[in-house]
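Progress note, sequence design subtask.
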């Protein structure tokens, strides 16, 4: 690990998804090297690279921490700074993490708290060096430490077992912050272009004809037409989706029309009516 004084520097500034500084990640008195490696890997996954350790265990190259770190063994982990808790408090806007929160403002150390999603939105407005502080595996951050930090964050979990593994907690929290730290992901652009209103109206016309051909009573046809309009209004179908539906209902309507023709020709019911 490289030495460091815990203070923010110009390297904390980024020009990625926002103009804000990326947070640093601080781990206080980690008990196992494996969890340090897991946190380093999560940082690498979600665009963070500044890891600071308070009283860490020995991190041997080729040891457990490096085994758990994945590609973060190449940069995040070997470049981690060993700092003191005081240096973190003095140099950063701090966010302490805890599984156990207060129920109301009688417990100022652990209340009020933000969820990771709420923290993401809050940090959008913070143009200052920020540190996300994780505590020990078994005990987390104590009340004295939390009193010295600026904010508290907690991950919602099952009431009967809310405590996550340290590495898991870091992964969940950093995932939620990814919009502030990751400029581009491996996923393709998922922006959906809604089909044209003309094609959607054509579909509604086909659907009305289909429902009418099935012999439903008028009040039920009107209800079903409205339900379909509300459904498509929420779904925002793409051009390909609506064209596929148009083809399906076009063929269905043609078959129903042919059934009506044959029924009339041979004086038979085309299908049961209501």
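Output:
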């Amino acid at each position: 690990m490289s030495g460091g004084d815990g203070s923010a520097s110009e390297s904390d500034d980024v020009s990625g998804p926002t103009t804000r500084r990326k947070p640093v990640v601080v781990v206080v008195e980690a008990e196992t090297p494996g969890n340090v490696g897991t946190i380093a890997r999560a940082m690498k996954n979600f665009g963070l690279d500044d890891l600071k350790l308070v009283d860490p265990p020995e991190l041997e190259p080729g040891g457990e921490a490096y085994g758990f770190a994945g590609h973060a063994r190449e940069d995040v982990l070997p470049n981690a700074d060993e700092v003191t808790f005081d240096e973190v408090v003095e140099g950063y806007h701090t966010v302490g993490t805890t599984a156990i929160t207060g129920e109301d403002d009688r417990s100022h150390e652990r209340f009020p708290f933000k969820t990771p999603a709420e923290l993401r939105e809050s940090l959008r407005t913070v143009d200052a060096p920020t540190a996300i502080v994780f505590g020990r595996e078994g005990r987390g951050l104590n009340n004295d430490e939390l009193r010295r930090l600026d904010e508290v964050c907690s991950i919602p979990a099952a009431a009967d077992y809310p405590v996550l593994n340290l590495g898991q907690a870091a992964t969940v929290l950093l995932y939620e912050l990814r919009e502030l730290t990751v400029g581009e992901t491996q996923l393709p652009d998922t922006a959906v272009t809604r089909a044209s209103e003309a094609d959607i109206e054509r579909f509604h016309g086909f659907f009305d004809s289909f429902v009418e051909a099935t012999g439903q009573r008028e009040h039920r046809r009107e209800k079903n037409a409205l339900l379909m309009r509300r459904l498509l209004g929420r779904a925002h179908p793409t051009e390909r989706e609506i064209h596929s539906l148009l083809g399906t209902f076009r063929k269905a309507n043609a078959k129903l029309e042919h059934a009506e023709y044959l029924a009339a020709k041979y004086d038979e019911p085309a299908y049961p009516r209501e």
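Confidence is low (pLDDT under 50) at residues 9-19. Work on this subtask will continue into the next period as scheduled.
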